[in-house]
Amino acid sequence: MQLKRSLRILAIAPTGFYADYGCHVRIRGQMAALAERGHCVRILTYPSGRDVDGLAMIRPPLWPRGKTMPVGSSRRKLLLDVLLGALLPAAALRFPGGRPDVIHAYLHEGALLGTLLGRALRVPVVFDYQGSLTEEMLDHRFLRLNSPLVPVLRALERWIDRQPQAILASSVQATRQLVKGSAVLPSRVSTLSDSVDPAIFRSRTEQPAAELAALRTRLRLPADRPVVVYLGLLAPYQGTELLLHALKLLAAHDRPPHCLIMGFPDVDHYRNLAASLGVTQNVTFTGAVPYEDAPLYLALGDAAVAPKVSATEGSGKLLPFMAAGLPIAAFDTPVHREYLGDLGFYARLGDSESLAGALERALSAGPDEKARRGWLLRARVIERYTWQHAAQEIETQ
Questions:
Q1: Of the candidates 320, 323, 313, 332, which has an alpha carbon nearest to the alpha carbon of residue 383?
Q2: Which of 21, 60, 305, 319 could cysteine-pair with 83, CB 3.0–4.6 Å?
Q3: What residues of the chain score a pLDDT lower than 50?
């Protein structure tokens, strides 16, 4: 139920918002939906990133505006977190209409800053939890597992997890991690999955045919082979290398699939890896694709692939695939099962040969089976995973 009054919401997003990838899509979707429902939203974020129509940004002034930020952990971000912390009191005290009613904190760095401000102002903090901070640092190879900092960071992370008045975890798996791993009271944690706008992401038949044909020509996609689409970050924990190895295994087929890989960073690295594996002719790397253009790009696909191997993060990239009604090959993880149920084509976690088999099954399924799964996947999105659903859940915290 929608609240009877609008809230003043100060969101803390310690990242270069906005860029076209998962964490930022979640922030944008949630805050835009809350603003549309009449709430006053301000987002405190890094100097880098694009502005978003309809969302007010607060950025530290003493930093080059166009300087890009790396994905994942970095020493530069530690400095920017200090700058955000210094800016927080002024951002809160100058909030239109009075101090904020709630602090909505993203990522652990945001939760730490929000906790300090919330205590000073006696304002409740809602923490949007998208995975373990320490595991993210390990996934991004910012830390090694044997580093003496790992136990220190894990202890700090558990302390941060227990401070907010409410936590919105991005998956059921993340909720379990908070309760079991950080001893967070179950009453403080709710599962709030990622979301998508199904009015934007639709099937191929509902996209403009002329624009779709022009894009296919511009990308030089083969007309006589199926196309597999991937949209997301490129990184080891995202399974990018495993995907390329799976494509190598499929290259010997009479009609090997062509994979349209849309994302960043390290595009040159993965392009070189594809060349070393002999699959250059079967892969097109686009680099970053603006989120607004993603629906048309995804409509080029005959199937989608989600090779993410991280055990601690959500997998919101599945939702545009689902909304577009695409058959989806994915590693068999609790998070993927949470979204796809029994409608995915699953592979053993971390096994490129098994992933190749899952892709083959997704592509070779009959038209009726593809249509059945596609319809059911899209129906799941409309029923459970829209931004309006997310905004309503946030309002109940």
A1: 323
A2: 60
A3: 1-2
The helix (run of H) or strand (run of E) holding residue 59 is none
Judge whether 106 and 75 are in contact, CB under 8 Å.
Answer: no
What is the rounded (10 degree) CA torsion for 21, 23, 24, 28? Answer: 130
Give pLDDT tens digits for 289-344.
Answer: 999 999 999 999 999 999 999 766 788 999 999 999 999 999 999 999 999 999 99
Evaluated on CA atoms 236, 239, 242, 247, the torsion sign reads negative
Q: How many Cα atoms occupy the beta-carbon half-sphere of 67 within 13 Å?
A: 13
Neighbours of 29 (CB within 10 A): 22
What CA–CA distance (Å, rounded) separates 260 from 273? 15
* Contact criterion met (CB below 8 Å) for 6 and 40: yes
Long-range contacts of 357-365 (CB under 8 A, 24+ apart): 358/329, 358/330, 359/228, 359/246, 359/250, 359/257, 359/303, 359/305, 359/329, 360/250, 360/253, 361/329, 362/303, 362/327, 362/328, 362/329, 363/226, 363/228, 363/257, 363/302, 363/303, 363/327, 365/327
What is the three-class DSSP state of 300? coil
Q: Does residue 18 have a cis peptide bond before it, meaning omega lies within 30 degrees of 0?
A: yes
Counting residues of the chain whose pLDDT is more than 90, the rounded percentage is 82
CA-only gyration radius of the chain, Å: 21
pLDDT reported for residue 282: 98
**DSSP letter assigned to residue 72:** S
Say what the pLDDT of residue 2 is: 45
Residue 155's Cβ-side half-sphere holds a number of Cα atoms within 13 Å equal to 5
CA 202 to chain centre: 19
Residue 265 · residue 234 · CB < 8 Å: yes
Show the beta-strand stretches assigned E in the chain.
Answer: 8-13, 40-45, 56-58, 102-106, 125-129, 166-169, 189-191, 227-231, 258-262, 283-287, 303-306, 328-331, 345-347
Tokens of 150: 């790992």
Any idea what DSSP says for residue 370? H
